[in-house]
Write a structure and sequence with these properties.
four-stranded antiparallel beta sheet, about 220 residues, Ribulose 1,5 Bisphosphate Carboxylase/Oxygenase, 7 helices, Rossmann fold, globular
Length: about 220
């Protein structure tokens, strides 16, 4: 397992290893795995994790694709960055360049279930290319609450390589908040591993423009 103090030490070293920049850097967590057969579908991991302390000054960008009353509710929400209606998405069908641009612009796409098939046709390939997928929003959902969760979420993936990584916050956040976020990600990832911490080879932390710092783990 990885003690909180080791995370604190790693974060402190990561800050020292990064030269001062004129902008707020993200704090990144990277995990290398071992003894995982990624040829087996059950060994591949995709997990979206709501960080208990959020993402500081760099929250995720959330788009909503909706129709009817959901459009009205989504436009009222301060947690929704952009609302797309059916007609706007239909224009993307066959326009691969525009679809790819849009797929990169937002971190999460919350989609009215009645529009899932349309989004799959218009954006499915583009979203898949950047490792994203539409999130179905059932009728009657509280879109503000749902968007709020995704604003503070990250997604980890283990697909072709035995590695997982994500942002856990920004350097201007209190260190104890970053520790809580790191532990939340590590706990969720380890839960998915067949041998838990035995499958963890190494853990690193870094600032976006800094050098990685290896954390000491004990199984």
């Amino acid at each position: 397992m990885l003690a909180s103090q080791k995370i604190v030490e790693g974060l402190t070293e990561a800050v020292k290893a990064s030269s001062r920049r004129g902008f707020v850097q993200s704090v990144e967590l990277m995990v290398n795995l071992k003894d995982i057969d990624l040829k087996r579908p059950e060994s591949r991991i995709t997990e979206t994790i709501e960080l208990p302390r959020g993402l500081g000054s760099k929250p995720r960008r959330v788009a909503v694709v909706a129709t009817g009353a959901l459009v009205v509710e989504a436009r009222k929400s301060s947690n929704v960055d952009k609302v797309f209606e059916r007609e706007e998405i239909e224009l993307l069908i066959g326009n691969k360049k525009a679809a790819k641009k849009l797929a990169r612009e937002y971190d999460y796409f919350l989609v009215d279930t009645s529009l899932i098939s349309l989004v799959a046709r218009a954006l499915g390939s583009a979203l898949g290319f950047v490792g994203k997928a539409p999130v179905p929003v059932p009728a009657g959902s509280d879109i503000d609450s749902l968007a709020s969760r995704y604003k503070r979420s990250v997604t980890i993936r283990v697909r072709k390589n035995p590695q997982a990584g994500c942002v856990i916050g920004t350097q201007d956040m209190p260190i104890e908040h970053l520790v809580d976020n790191a532990q939340a990600v590590l706990n969720r990832l380890v839960e998915r591993l067949p041998k838990k911490w035995v499958n963890v080879d190494s853990v690193y932390m870094k600032l976006s423009m800094g050098e990685p710092v290896r954390l000491s783990i004990k199984v």
